[in-house]
Amino acid sequence: MSSPEGTIEGAVATKDDSAVTRGWLVPAIIGSALLMQTLNATVISNALPAMAETFGVEPIRLNVAITTYMLAAAIFLPLSAWIADRFGARRVFMSSIVLYTIGSLACGMANDMLGLVIARFLQGVAGATLMPVGRLVLLRTTPKSELVGALAVLTMPALLGPVVGPILGGAIVTFASWRWIFLINLPIALIGLVLVYRYVPEVKEQEPPRVDLTGIILTGVGLACLIFGFENLGRDLLSPWAVAALFGAGAVSLVIYGRHARRTPHAVVNLDVFKNRTFSASVIGGGFMRVGMGANPFLLAMMLQVAFGMTAFAAGTMTFVSAMGALLMKTSAPPLLRRFGFRTVLLVNGVIVALSFMSYSLFRPTWPHWGIMLVLGIGGFFRSLQFTSLSGMVYADIDQEEMSRATTTSSMIQQLVQSIGIALSALLLHLLMTVNHTTTLTPEVVSPAFIIVGLVTLISMLWFIRLPPNAGDEMSGRVPRI
C-alpha cells in the first residue's frame, strides 16, 4: 500500500533544516525554475508585433503562438500526475526543464510561422508537466497550515518574469531581435537544473495507479478541440461548419469521458472533486478571473504598441509596473487572508479586479505615461491578491491521496480558460474592427474589449458568494471570531 503522503527521498537531515527547506528554500527554487514560463509568457505578448513583421502577418494573427502553447499543455497535462507518481516528481520536473529549453531554442531559431508554431507546441508539452509537477512537490512536502505562505514564496520568483519581462522583452525587441526573448531561457534553465538537483527532495507514490490511457485520450482530444475551436472563432482560416465540428467533437469527447470516469476507479480527472465547494469555487469560479488574465497581456500589447504606436520597449516600461504591484501584494496576501478569510477577500477583491480591467478602456494616447502606469500598478496589486487567494484555497479540503489528480484537474482547466481568454480577446478585436468598419486597431476599437473582459470576470461571484464564511481557514491560519 502506498502511504497517503508518498515517499520523500533526499530530504534534509534535521527537523530544523527540513522546516527551513520546506518553508522557503524548496518553494523558491521551484518558483525560480518556473521563471522561464512566466518570463516567456510576459515577453511574447510584447514581441508579437515585431514577430508579425518578421513573418509578414497581421499582429492579431500571432495570438496562435500563445494558444498553440496552451493547446499542447492541455493535451499533455492529464499525464503529468501519473508520470510524476511513476518516475518521481523531481526527475520529471528536471526533464521538463530540459525539454522546455530545447523548445525555447527552436523558437529562437524559427524562420516562419510553421516553425514557430511547432516549437511553441514543444514548449507546451514541457510546460504541461513543469508547473503542475513543481506544485505537486510543494503540496506533498508542506503541511496545509504552511501552504499559503509556501505558495506565496513559490510565486514570488515566478513573478520576476512579469516584472522583468516587459522591460527586458521591450529592450530586446527594440534594440536587438525578438529571437533573444526565447534564447535567454538557456542560462535560467541551467541554474534551475543545478538547484533542483541539489535541494529539491524526490517525491513519488510507492504504488502509482494504472495509467488511465482512455481518459487521457478523451480529455486530450476534448480540450484540444475546444481550444482550437475558440482559436478559430471569427476567423477565415476554417469554415463556420469546421469550427462548429471542433466544438461538437470537444463536447462529445468530454461527455464520453464523464461516463468513463464514473466507472473507472483511477480516472485521470476525478470529477467527484468538483463536489468540494472550495475546489469548485477556485477552479470553476476562478476560471472566469483567469479569462481576464489570459486576455489582458494580449489586449495591452495591441493597445499600446499597435493602437498607440509605442515601441516595444516603451510599452514594456509602461506595463512592468503591473507586475511590480503584483510582487508587492505577495507579502500582504497571507495577513489579509488570516484577517478576513478567503470568502470576503475573493468577493470584495474580485469586484476591484473587474473594475481595474474595465478602467484600461479609458486609456488614450493623450494620457500621461505616469497615469497609465499608476492604473496598471494598482490593477496588478489587486489581481495578485485574487490569484494568490484562489491558488491557496483550491487545495484547502483535498486529501493527500487525491492531491495528484486534483492538481492535474486544476492545471487543465487553467490552461483551457487562459486560452479562451486569449482567443476571446482576438475574437473581440476582430468583431470590433468589423463593427467600426476598419481594418486597423485604434484606441476606440480596443477599448470596449477591456470592458467586456471585466464583465466576464464578475461571473466568478456566483461561486464565491456560496462559500461558507470559514472556507479555507485551515490554509490561511485564520481563527474565526466568536
What do you see in this structure?
This protein is mainly α. The protein folds into two domains: 13-197 and 268-476, MFS general substrate transporter like domains (Growth Hormone, Chain: A, Up-down Bundle), CATH 1.20.1250; 212-267. Helix content is 75%, strand content 1%. It contains 18 helices and two strands. It has a two-stranded antiparallel sheet. The longest helix has 33 residues, at 403-435. The chain starts with 6 loop residues before the first strand and ends in a 6-residue tail after the last helix. Mean pLDDT is 79; it is low at 1-17. It is a multi-pass membrane protein. It is found in: Cell membrane. It comes from Phenylobacterium koreense.
Strand content: under 5%
Distance between the termini: 42 Å
Mean pLDDT: 79
N-to-C SSE string, H for helix and E for strand: EHHHHHHHHEHHHHHHHHHH
* Count of helical stretches: 18
Main sheet summary: 2 strands, antiparallel
Under the CATH scheme, the architecture of the largest domain is Up-down Bundle
* Overall body shape: globular
C-alpha-based Rg, rounded: 21 Å
The domain tally reads: 2
**Main sheet strand line-up:** 1-2
- Uncertain residue ranges: 1-17
* CATH 4th-level superfamily of the largest domain: MFS general substrate transporter like domains
**What is the class of the largest domain in the CATH system?**
Mainly Alpha
Subcellular location: Cell membrane
Organism: Phenylobacterium koreense
Main location: membrane
Keywords: Cell membrane, Membrane, Transmembrane, Transmembrane helix, Transport
